[in-house]
Amino acid sequence: MSAAQAASDETLIARIAQGDRLAMQVLYGRHHVKVFRFGLRLVRNEQVAEDLISEVFLDVWRQAGKFEGRSAVSTWLLAITRFKALSALRRRKDAELDDETANAIEDQSDDPEVAVQKKDTSNALRECLTQLSAEHREIVDLVYYHEKSVEEVAEIVGIPENTVKTRLFYARKKLAGLLKAAGVERGWP
Prior knowledge:
By secondary structure, the chain is mainly α. It has 10 helices and no strands. The two termini are 23 Å apart. The chain has 2 domains: 3-94, Rna Polymerase Sigma Factor, Chain: A (Orthogonal Bundle); 111-181, Winged helix-like DNA-binding domain superfamily/Winged helix DNA-binding domain (Arc Repressor Mutant, subunit A, Orthogonal Bundle), CATH 1.10.10.
């Protein structure tokens, strides 16, 4: 993101704090896809991720006056998304498993089609990412897919920068092993 866009995001937040609906529409248009994708990676359910978008931007509308500018607006949005996603996951774990949900759970055993798909580097990488712990997957997602710095990741997740670096190191090491086992020799920098 350019410095000009970051500055204009802050201007939008200031205008939203004053009740400017057009500024809210512009901010939403600029960031809703990132919020959705990040939320979807965390909750793994499109409907829940769609609900997260509404909750996140409703919070932005209500809390814009409290934004202090200590981080980029995009970082603030992803931090709100993470909080909302974790809350949604806790609620979902508490809900009982109904028949419809139980039937929707896919069989994880490999059939011939899945075996062929695993040879595809992209599919192999996605599969390997799902095998990382939630903490490691979250760090990899923020650093590589959302291009956040270690400092920004630390702020979003609420942990020290050194912990981010350590988790990233171990996540990359584990991912390299998983990729090698999946037949992908060089898929991760």
